[in-house]
Design a protein that fits this description.
This protein has helices spanning 19-49, 53-89, 93-128, 133-148, 151-165, 170-192, 202-227, 238-274, 278-294, 296-314, 318-354, 358-370, 375-390, 394-407, 409-448, 468-474, 481-490, 532-540, 564-587, 592-596, 603-616, and strands spanning 453-455, 498-503, 506-510, 516-521, 525-529, 545-546, 555-559. By secondary structure, it is mainly alpha-helical. Helix 2 packs parallel to helix 4 (133-148) and helix 11 packs antiparallel against helix 13. It is found in: Cell membrane.
Length: 623
Amino acid sequence: MTTPGAPKPARATLVEGDIGQALLGLALPMSLGIVFLIAVNLADTYFVGQLGTDELAAMSFTFPVVMLVMSATMGLGVGTTSAIARAIGAGDDRLVRRLTTHALILGVTIVAALAGLGLLTQRWLFTQLGAEGSVLELVIEYMTVWFLGAAFLVIPMLGSGAIRATGDAKTPMYIMMGAALVNGILDPVLIFGLGPIPALGLRGAALATLGARLLTFVAALWVLGSRLKMIEWQLPAITQLRSSWRSILSVGIPAALTNMLAPIATGVMTAMIATHGKAAVAAWGVGSRLEGLVLIAPMALSAALTPFVGQNWGAHRHDRTAEALRKARRFVLIWGAGAWLFLATLGGLVAGAFSADPAVHEVLKLFFWIIPATYGAHAVVSVVSATFNAVDRAVRSTLISAMRSLLLAIPLAALGSYLAGIVGIFIGVALATMISALIANAWAAELYRGQAVVVASQTRVEPERAPAASQSMVGVATHRSGLIDRLVASLQGLDGLEIGKARVNAIGFFGPGGREIGHVHRGGQLDLCFPPRVLDELVAAGRVVHHRHIDDACWVTYELESGLGGATELLRLGHALAKVRAEVEVKGHADLDRALAGLDVGERLRESIAAVVDSWSPKPIAV
C-alpha cells in the first residue's frame, strides 16, 4: 500500500491520446497567458505615462536590464521544462522531484547574484545607458525595488515551467491571470494614492509589480509543494545538484542566449533602417509590434511543444514527437499564409490606424507585402527550435534562431540596403527567415532519421535466418550479432511486445502504448529503463549496473556476454511491468501475481515492484 502522505508520481499525461488535442490543450492557455503578460506591461506603461515624460523615460531606461534578467530566467525556465518533461516521460518520479527542487535553487542563486550585482552597480550602469539628472534618480528609485524583489520573479517562472512539464498549462495561466489582476488593481492605488495610501509615483509601480510577484510566488510554491508533491524538502547533496544543474543548464544557457538575440538584432536592424529616414523607423516599429501580436498563436504552440516533446522523448515515443512537429509545422504555415493575405490586402487600412503620415503609410505597405510572407517560415524556425530544446539539443536551437535574427539577417539586410534601400532590407530579412526555416527542417529530419522505426513482433526472426535482425535493423554486423539475433528470437511470442529500430545503431523493445522497455546496441550493451525502486534492487543484486553515460536516471545496463538468459529475463521483467502499468492506467489496478508468473523475482524485488505498482494505482493492487 502507498504510505499516507507519500509523494505521488507525476504521470506522463502527454504520451497517449490525440496529439492535436494535447497540443491545443497546452497552446491555448499559453496564448492567453501571453495576452495577460502583454496586458500587465501595457497597464504599467499607461499608468506611468500619466505621471509625466521623465517617469516614462525612466521606465524605458530600465527595459534593457530587466530584459537581461528576464532572458536568463526564461532560459532557465525552458531548461527546467525540458529536463522535467523528459524525466516524467521516462517514469522517473524521484528525478522529477529532484530536478524541480534543484531548478528552483539554481534560479534563485543566479537571479540573486544578478540582482545583487545590479544593486551595487545600478547608478554607474544606467549612467552608461544615458540616464542623467532627475531621470537617473527615478530609474534608481524604480530598480532598487525591482532588484530587491527579483527572487520573487524566478520562482513563479521556473515553477510554471515545471507545472507545464506535467502537461498542465491551465494552472500557470490562472497564476498569470491572478498576477495581471493584482498588478492592475495595485498600479493606480500605489502610483496615485487612495485614501490613507500615499501617492508613491514610479516607486508605486515597482511595488505593484512586486505585489503581483508575491502572489505568483506563493501560488507556484503551493501547487508544486502541496498539490503536485514535486519539491523535496531536504538539503540536496552536492553531487546531485551538479547533475541536475548540468541537465537544466545544457538547455537553459543556449535558450537564454537565444532570448538575448532578439533585442540585439532589433537594435542593429533599427540602426540600419534609421539611415533611410524617420518614416522608415516608424514603419519598422509599427510592423515589428504587429508581428508580435500576429505570432502569439504560433509562439504559444512552440512553447507547448517543449513539454509535449519532452515527455514523449523521455518515454521514447519518437513517433509521437515526429507527428507533433509535423502538425505544428502545418498549422503555423497555414496561420502564416492567412496573416500575410490579411496584412497584404488590408495593409493600407492597418497603416492608417497607426499613423497619419503618408510616408509611413508607403513604407508600411511594403513591409506588409514582404515580411509577413515569411511569418510561416518564422514560426517553423520557432517550433523546430522548441523541439530541439525539448530533446536536449539546445545548441542547434540557438544556432537556428541566431541564423534567422542575426547571422543571416544582418548581412543580407545590409546587402539589400546597399542594393535597393528599405525594400532591400525587407527582402534581406525575408530571405534570412526562409533560409533558416529550410535549414531547421533539414536538421529536424536528421534528428528523426532512424528514430523509433518499430516493426511488428508478429514477424518472427528465426535463429537459422540470423543475422537478419542485427544487419537489417542495426545495419552493421559485429562479433555480437549472433547474440543479438538469439535475444530477439527468444522474445518472440510475448504478447504486446514490438521489436524495431530504436536509434541509429540499436534495436528497441517496446511494450504496450509504444513505451520503450530497453534497447540493445550493436556492441552488445542492453540498456533498460526501470522505476527507481526496482532499479535499486536490481543493481544491489548485481543483475545490472548503472548506465555508463546517463547520470541519475532510470537507465541501467546489462552486457549480453554476461549471459543471454539474464538479458531475456530482464526484458521479460520490463515487459511485465509495462503491461502492468498499462493495465493500471485503464482499470486502476493490476493482478501482480499473474504478471510476474514464471519470472525470477525474489521477495525483496517483489516488494519493491508491489510498492511501485501501488504508487501508480489509486486502488489497492491484487496480490
